[in-house]
Known about the structure:
elongated; single chain; 6-stranded antiparallel sheet
Amino acid sequence: MVGVPKTDPGTHARNAAVQSTDDEKIAAAALLGVNPGPELMILSDRDFTVAMYRIADDQDKPRPLEPGNRTVKNAALKALDEGDAACTAFIKTGMKVAHDEDIALDREWRGQQEAERAAKAIAAGMLSIPVSGTDLSKSVSDFIAFLDLNAHAHKDMLVKEKAKQALRGTPDEQWTFLTSGLGAAHTADVKRITDENTAIGEAERQAAKARAAKANAAWQALGVVADDRLVNLPDRSFVFEISNRAPQDTEVFGAAEEALYGEAAEWKHFIDVGAEAAHLRDVENTLKKRDEARKRQILEIRTRAANSLAHPALVAAADKALAGTPADRVRFLLSGKDENLTQTLRTQAFDDFYLGDGDGQAVLRAWTPGQRPELVWKVEPGLSDPSCHSFASTTRPNHFLRIVNNRISVDPTDGSRAFAATVTWCARRINSGIGFHNAQGRVDLAVNAPAGVGDVWHVEAPQPPLPIERRYNADAAARGRLGTATGAALINDNGTGYRPYQNGRLYQAFRPGSNELTTSVVAGEILSKFASSGYENGVLGYPIEDERPLSQTSGRVQRFTSGAVYIVPNVGTFAVHGEIYKKYATTNYENGFLSYPTSDTTRLPDGTGWATTFSGNGGAIYHHPSIGAKIIYGNIRARWNQLGAEKSWLGYPTSDEFDLPKGRRNTFQNGRIDFSNDGGGTFDYKTVAIEPKAIAIKGVGSQSCIQIAGVGQDALRDGAGAELWQCVPGAVKQIWDVVPLGDNKYNLKNRNSGKCLDVYNSNLDNNGLIMQHSCHNGLNQQWELTTDNTGENYALRAVHSAKVADGRGRPPFNGKPVGQWADSGTNSQRWTIIPQ
């Protein structure tokens, strides 16, 4: 760690022409009860302001719960922030104004303390419980517990019950019980005891209840235990006495005055319930004033912390207290303001490296999960300038981050002014980060790094900030969409996890193939779909990017480790995952020919397969665990759907759709579907095995058989064409020996010539010549016998072209040529097999 000289002269240049006089310094110091000696009088106005802050702060340390010199200290810090002229004004007039306000705050605070002691004494007296000065010094909560412990188990039964309820409540609820609720409970207990007393008559019982009601009214209205004279007054005289004694700026006075001008019923109502209700309104008003004072005090702390640039944790705690309940604000002022002074310092020069105490050396350490106390600093007011900061090690008390000979170290304090100057660092904003320069030498806290980043720091929480926390704090759009957190972050051992918010979740996870965590917001419709799939433990896995627009529509998409969720306008929100998602990726997702999904990846009724449909080309992807994911679309899928899709006789697809020379094909578990783009149709079929070793092939439409044309030697030559002829049993020109080639593919060898049935020159066109040729087993000599699910007749299909043998024409058929044509399902293309 190094210190880098700072060339900026700063904002605290001395201006001797406006320095205060000695008399003004003496008067200012006297406000704190100090007679300044030469060591104070020779200070510049700025340094004198620092000294006044230090003295005021030292005076307040033994009395942390009292207002003390709060306003003076705030005014001193404000002057130090604003510059030398403000420090002079502080000495001349500002300190006196602030001191007067502190006196008023102190007077108000002491009045509250006296009122609290008086309320405790009266409450104890009402229950006939003796108390000491020590008892009266207890907190309100502890005093209520004291009363509960010492109250009579039977006589004070309701008091004890209400005391226990109050102890479970907030400080304000406890104060309301002490000053009001206890009296009401005590009155109820007195009435109960009176009803239980069978030794007195009804008239005496009613009189006792009336006296109890007046005793409660006096307690509520005046905070006194009523004597016999007061409780025995007639109703109107009693109300007059209350009105006469109550402060005129209270609800009690107003209610009593209003009752006095009424009739007997109004007097009794005031005694029975009105005094208590008015007192409760006074209590509420008092509590509101106290809370407003706490809010002002917390806001002062927050403003000072925010302006310091080095206390984000304190700012956050103050914001939480201001947005919380009165009890939250009490806790913040009692302890929270002191519990949120620790921070970490992350350098911008290197990713996730923090400044730490290396047993005397300032070091940079990479942050890892878990407790790292050596990287945590307590940010205290600067030892030589309280408007700046001193960084105290949390692992070695009274050791501070220090600049010595342009090197940064962590050293124990010696209490001297010279030491204080070397450990005081002043903050300034540098774009999104913060720079710290030493108050004495104008040297930056910096690391050896390229210019422009080595002196930039980020003040962060003492615990390791998770990537999702850093994202949330830095990304206003993410905060706006997610809202506030509703729970703690849930992080796995490998670092993946999420934090829940009002409107969604913020995740951190690894992209496939990467060891760097990425953060993703999941919200809205996509969150609902994600939730229905089991969140990150479901089929989609963890999110690996934010939701983003689709390029082809106004929809949205978000990707996950094992899938994606799509919002398709006017269609729906769909999750695509697993093997189907992997196959979809091979088509370039929504930018490919399948376009966007129109269904979830859904388990099919057989409980085995899965499918997702898409908007592009009427497409779908089907997955069977023993086959894999296959793409089917267009005319072929339309035909398959007509048959019943995976429930049809074809079963699941076993291939993606692929090209034929003049069309397209999908294969299935039990067959195929071919689509012709050359005049044919879309047909489902299966290949069949030819069991006989020799066959005749008879046309369904022509009732004629395929033979080789020609007479004598002409029927033996290469190129002799295939033709139809009336079937003649045993005619060797009509007999075809079946030569298996595997996979239900065959050569058909003419018995007469010994040559193979062949498509001339591997022609792919319609009406391509079918002839015979010397056998060579080429694709144009390979044939399949195919049939639909009925198995009633067959097509003779050329393997090389996927077209079928066609004996078209009108009778008479003898001599009509047989050619290849695109399959159109006509009878001229369908054949029966006659074993030979």
